Amino acid sequence: MWRELASALADTLYMVSASTFFSVVFGFVTAVAMVLTRPGGLRPNAAAHTALDLVVNLLRSFPFVILMIAIIPLTRFLAGTSIGSTASIVPLTVAATPFVARIIEGSLLGVDPDVIEAARSFGARDLQVVFGVMVREATPSIILDIAIVAVNLVGYSAMAAALGGGGLGDLAIRYGYNRFQTDIMVYSIIVLIVVVQLIQRTGTLLSRKIR
Amino acid sequence: MISVEHVCRNFGNLNALRDVSFSVARGEIFGIVGHSGAGKSTLLRCLNGLERYGSGTIRVMGREVAGLGEEELRDLRRGMGMVFQNFGLMERKNVAENVAWPLDVWKVPRDAAERRVEELLDIVGLSSKRAGRIRNLSGGEKQRVGIARALALSPGILLCDEPTSALDPATTESILGLLGDINRNLGVTILLVTHQMEAVKRICDRVLLLDRGRVCGCGRTEDVFLSPSPEMKRFVRDDYASPEEGVCVRVAFPREVAGESVVSRMARDLAIDFCVVGGRLERYRDTVLGFLIISVRPEDLEGVAGYLSGKRLLWEVIDDVA
């Protein structure tokens, strides 16, 4: 049992860290694009902004289980298969990216507009404003965003079990729910609680440290 | 140094600026005053291209702002520092790093930049806090950092957007003093946008009054405040409660003349009664003027007028005391 628990934990950590990484990369780029193109942004572009905004809202409206099934062809194309932990990274990333884009957008918009204007007032280029000011000032807040996403992905990864992804959620469902082995279910949940606590605490500490 | 001609700016159907014209000479401290929403900040931002204007021309240091490309605009901004109401400092940088920020942007070599930062911190009196965190500073200290940063690239012009509006009166006084010193010692031309009449009287050579995007007065500070034209009046006048009957007379006294004794002597000489409606001392750059508003009976007005004029005092009848 302990061996199963350990390997399930490894699976969960693998899926969550990989999908957090990819969704943060894609979501961050999207967020920067949305902030730049929004009305009153550094490079206002109504068409691009509306399109991005729409896609983000659209993807966020899908229930995760449905999204997972809907993008099976994409998953198969990218991962070579549609079942297993590696394959479930694809739907997890697709589901989390628009969410990441939205909350990082919020963090970037939270940067004091006077600071941005100050940078422009002495001749900073747009790129210097985005990375030197917006991203830099928003970093503590973005770190908290990433912790939120990682915690959400722990929950989503359990749902991925329904399509053959592994991990703690899978363990809890297979043994605890299907085979009535309550102890395994309880252990899986305890490990999940610890994982979530660790993610959130690390995020909070890091964010506070660099503030 | 700066000349603005017939500038208009609309936001949708709101006319933020309507046919604004004025010019600022090198070395001046020029005030732009108005109530909130009058277009002051918009006007200031047009000068360094942070805001676009619809029609008219703005020439800064000989260059038409609207005609500048991106690189030319950066170059123009290099020569114009800007100070903000809420300071616009980076919380994650310390004091010295904030001051050095424009130098980083312009890739000034490290040792030259360090020397410059020391000079600037010395000018604003914050040398002892160079490694301090921004969030541990008082409002006045934050604004000093903002001013040091605005001066980093040795600009010829300093644009100040409500620099003292977030500060308490004593701190306001010290920041205005600092701006005055910078103007005198470094020869920097200063544009000061504010809604605080006191700030204008304290340091501005000339002042522009803006009301709903329109210029409603422009001239030397003393002229605008001491003998305002009718349309400037409701701008620069304080409100006093006046007695029901009686005529209010506002008398200005140079510092060396004590207002109370002149007026009471006048009352004795003319054998009239008066009551004091209000009074204050106002500071106009280096001179202090006293004001006294008294109320006299209408039939005594003529005598009072003759008496005050005989003493060569500036006075006027205020009929619109509300």
Mean pLDDT rating of chain A: 91
CATH topology of chain A: MetI-like fold
The helix/strand order of chain A is HHHHHHHHH
Radius of gyration of chain A: 20 Å
Show unreliable segments of chain B.
none
Unreliable spans of chain A: none
Specify the structural class of chain A: mainly alpha
CATH architecture label name of the largest domain in chain B: 3-Layer(aba) Sandwich
Quaternary state of this entry equals heterodimer
Give descriptors for this structure:
heterodimer; A: 211 residues; mainly alpha; MetI-like fold; 9 helices; 83% helix; 0% strand; B: 322 residues; alpha/beta; Rossmann fold; Alpha-Beta Plaits; 2 domains; 4-stranded antiparallel beta sheet; 30% strand; globular
Explain this structure to me?
The complex is a heterodimer of chains A (211) and B (322). With 211 residues, chain A is mainly alpha-helical. Chain A has a single domain, classed as Orthogonal Bundle (MetI-like fold), CATH 1.10.3720. Chain A is elongated, with a radius of gyration of 20 Å. Chain B is of the alpha/beta class and 322 residues long. Chain B has 2 domains: 232 residues, Rossmann fold (3-Layer(aba) Sandwich); 81 residues, 2-Layer Sandwich (Alpha-Beta Plaits). Helices cover 36% and strands 30% of the residues of chain B. Chain B is built from 11 helices and 14 strands. In chain B, the strands form 3 sheets. In chain B, strands 6-7-8-3-9-10 form a 6-stranded mixed beta sheet, sandwiched between helices. In chain B, helix 3 packs parallel to helix 5. At the A-B interface, helix 6 and helix 7 of A face helix 2, strand 6, helix 3 and helix 5 of B.
What are the SSEs and their pairings?
The complex is a heterodimer of chains A (211) and B (322).
Chain A: H1 2-37, H2 46-61, H3 64-70, H4 72-79, H5 85-109, H6 113-121, H7 126-160, H8 168-178, H9 182-210
Chain B: E1 2-11, E2 14-24, E3 29-33, H1 40-47, E4 55-60, E5 63-64, H2 70-78, E6 80-83, H3 95-105, H4 110-124, H5 139-151, E7 157-161, H6 169-186, E8 189-194, H7 197-203, E9 206-211, E10 214-220, H8 221-226, H9 230-236, E11 247-254, H10 259-270, E12 274-284, E13 287-296, H11 301-310, E14 314-318
Parallel strand pairs in B: 3-8, 3-9, 6-7, 7-8
Antiparallel strand pairs in B: 1-2, 1-4, 4-5, 9-10, 11-13, 11-14, 12-13
